[in-house]
Design goal:
Blueprint lengths: L4 H29 L4 H20 L3 H18 L9 H20 L5 H19 L3 H5 L8 H5 L13 H12 L6 H4 L29 E3 L3 E3 L1 H11 L1 H32 L7 H25 L5 H29 E3 L1 H4 L2 H12 L2 E7 L4 E3 H22 L3 H6 L5 E11 L2 E8 L6 H10 L5 H6 L2 H6 L21 H11 L3 E7 L3 E9 L4 E9 L2 E6 L3 E5 L6 E4 L4 E6 L2 E7 H4 L13 E7 L2 E7 L1 E9 L13 E6 L5 E5 L1 H21 L1
Parallel strand pairs: 4-6, 11-20, 15-17
Antiparallel strand pairs: 1-2, 3-5, 6-7, 7-9, 8-9, 10-11, 10-18, 12-16, 13-14, 14-15, 16-17, 19-20
Helix pairs in contact: 1-2, 1-4, 2-3, 3-4, 3-5, 4-5, 10-11, 12-13, 15-16, 16-21
């Protein structure tokens, strides 16, 4: 039977991302606090132990070799064989970084022995020095003059390159390293019986010796030692030290026992969850979408039934079906939703590494960890947030001495928060740095021809600052490997718009910058309102509607040359967008008061849409247009209607952008005249 290692490597790599994040966050906390609790030490050991065991099981020899030393240090810390020192945190964080690099190179088949030794030599010396730091006082006696380095040096797992027997050799030696670790059997649950018998023929562990509780670790020159035997020898040699070692072992065994019980509970709890590919959930959502469309078709068809009693009965049952479909949709949506913490967990390490590289002091805060977001949005959202945070670190937060001169704390703050409000996900990234030089941004945009003189003079401070999201614009004096090319912020705006969101920026020189991102809660299904414009029908997302009304003549105010109208609503002036004009349709009425107005909002900006009438409200399945049609400003997506025809879904953000361009054009021509 052939054994496909790549499938298991994929499973391991997925798990490794979560384990690395977990360990990183514990160590970052430890670096900040200068201490590690017993629980945190246990968590670190379990994360790294699983990484080593699973990595070895999928034949990542270099990864397992280096990780063994990191695990050894963490094991000694959790069993209190050595004392935790604050400076260990940095070494362990660097150790995790090297583990990630080795993993990446080895999976890509780009790792060699020379490269491995070059990457790990200095760090291994540090790690081993810490591992052996306090052991001499506990195990070295007059009768045992050898230093701990000599007596405890563990034979490394060295893959023999260019050897036909390398895989077989590695299996035997890799698992021999931790044969006496009792937790080992839990790490390889999915291979439980494959290595206990030499006659199973599974292919992966063919010649693997049977591992028993009495198995021993190889040490030095083919010597073998059992930890309990060693302790017994020490007992004979030194009665005084025996008491200390014996009680320490007892404490260690008790802790391990408790740890194993907790681990078993954890494993038991994990059996209640399964890992499912997002594509399968998307397929399920598409199936529900098809049900929504079919239900709409049946509802429309039932209206043709002449017998009113039968028609009423059918419609009643279809309403029940619609409720069930909506419940099913909500259930699937809850499966797709994940907490914002899954995004936040990627940032503390980035903030720590970049601030250290730049010589800045930065505190990272996050709020709304349990606020849930559609999993499908995470990929599109993580990169923009990463760009914004890197930009804040590089350009926003000042050097400690500059902050002190400005009367601030020498430590800057970057905070990110998330909340759900008005059917939207609102994410805010705030820093207390030097702010964005909006004049400088606007000047660069002017030089590049992205705005003209009239636009420049009519823009507000925040509107000028928003130009930083234009392609090729940056306030950096020089390009660094962190930022400065003027590409990142352009990517931010593009990605947020792809998610159907809007971004705004508020900044104040010397005080800091706040970037707010507003996103729809989901991209799959939305509640829409059918509206008629001329002889065409469109769908308007309900989440963007503020209110609808039939205006009176005194509510409409004309400005400029009389072509632009404003709606005066409760002392607020709202620009009117004539949809028939925007889409090039024949208008069916002259005066606005003869039609309807729907006030819509994107972010904090409102416009009033002039339409003929609004029809019925219903759920629609969102289908993207960009794959089959060119983009049209004001149209965001499409859906299939109950009669099988295509319905266009309005893009409120696009409509508002079109209106802003019209206003700027009017202002420019007015100033030119």
């Amino acid at each position: 039977m052939s054994f496909d290692i790549s499938k298991y490597r994929e499973m391991f790599l997925e798990e490794a991302v979560e384990l690395f994040e977990s360990a990183d966050n514990v160590l970052l906390e430890a670096e900040n606090n200068g201490s590690l609790t017993d629980d945190e030490m246990g968590q670190l050991f379990r994360d790294v132990h699983t990484l080593k065991g699973s990595g070895a099981s999928v034949e990542l020899a270099y990864f397992a070799e280096f990780t063994h030393d990191v695990e050894n240090l963490m094991d000694k810390l959790r069993s209190h064989k050595i004392e935790y020192k604050p400076e260990m945190a940095e070494t362990l964080i660097d150790g995790l970084d090297v583990m990630k690099e080795i993993l990446e190179l080895e999976v890509a088949n780009q790792m060699t022995r020379e490269k491995f030794e070059e990457m790990t030599k200095e760090l291994l010396e540090e790690i081993r020095a810490y591992s052996n730091s306090d052991s001499s006082s506990k195990s070295t006696t007059k009768e045992n003059p050898n230093p701990p380095e000599a007596s405890q040096k563990v034979e490394s797992v060295k893959p023999q390159e260019n050897s036909n027997n390398s895989k077989k050799d590695f299996r035997n030696r890799a698992f021999g390293i931790f044969a006496d670790e009792e937790e080992n059997s839990e790490s390889f649950g999915f291979f439980d019986d494959s290595y206990n018998s030499s006659s199973n023929g599974s292919g992966f562990f063919d010649d693997m010796p049977k591992i028993t509780p009495d198995s021993v670790m190889e040490i030095g020159e083919n010597n073998s030692i059992d930890e309990n035997e060693s302790n017994e020898n020490n007992k004979v040699k030194d009665d005084n030290s025996n008491q200390e070692v014996s009680s320490e072992n007892k404490r260690s065994r008790d802790k391990n026992k408790v740890g194993k019980e907790e681990s078993k509970k954890s494993i038991s709890n994990n059996n209640n969850s399964i890992r499912v590919n997002l594509d399968k959930i998307d397929l399920l959502m598409n199936n529900v979408g098809d049900l929504v469309i079919t239900n709409a078709m049946l509802t429309q068809f039932s209206s043709t039934i002449e017998e009113s009693k039968i028609r009423g009965s059918v419609l009643e049952r279809l309403e029940l079906l619609e409720r069930h479909i909506r419940d099913m949709q909500d259930s699937i949506m809850s499966i797709r939703m994940v907490p914002m913490d899954s995004i936040y967990s990627k940032f503390p390490k980035v903030v720590r590494d970049i601030s250290k590289k730049l010589g800045k002091k930065v505190e990272f805060k996050h709020y709304g960890d349990n606020v849930e977001i559609d999993k499908a949005m995470i990929e599109g959202l993580t990169d923009p947030l990463m760009h914004i945070i890197r930009n804040s670190l590089d350009h926003g937060i000042e050097m400690p001495e500059d902050r002190v001169k400005a009367g601030k704390s020498d430590t800057g703050t970057i905070s990110i928060s998330a909340e759900q409000a008005n059917g939207q996900m609102i994410i805010t990234i705030e820093d207390d740095g030097k702010g964005v030089d909006s004049e400088r941004i606007a000047q660069k945009a002017l030089e590049k021809g992205q705005i003209d003189e009239h636009q420049y003079s009519s823009m507000s401070n925040n509107e000028k600052a928003l130009l930083i999201f234009g392609a090729g614009l940056s306030t950096a004096d020089q390009i660094t490997d962190i930022s400065g090319r003027g590409v990142g912020m352009d990517v931010v705006k593009t990605n947020i718009h792809k998610l159907g969101g809007v971004i705004k920026l508020d900044t104040e020189i010397g005080r800091g910058t706040t970037i707010t991102i507003m996103l729809p809660l989901t991209l799959a299904i939305l509640d829409g309102l059918d509206i008629r414009v001329g002889d065409q029908k469109y769908i308007l997302p309900l989440s963007s509607i503020v209110e609808s009304l039939q205006p009176t003549a005194d509510m409409i105010k004309k400005i400029g040359d009389g072509t632009q109208d404003l709606l005066m609503l409760r002392e607020e002036f709202i620009p009117v967008v004539k949809l028939h004009k925007l889409f090039g349709l024949k208008k069916s009425f002259e005066n606005l008061e003869d039609g309807m107005l729907i006030v819509v909002r994107s972010g904090s900006t409102k416009v009033a849409l002039s339409i003929d009438e609004f029809l019925n409200q219903h759920q629609v399945v969102v289908k993207p247009l960009d794959k089959n049609f060119r983009s049209v400003q004001g149209i965001g997506a499409a859906t299939v209607r109950g009669d099988g025809s295509i319905g266009l879904i309005l893009d409120v953000l696009g409509i508002i952008d079109a209106q802003i361009k019209i206003e700027r054009k009017m202002n420019s021509s007015k100033k030119a005249s």
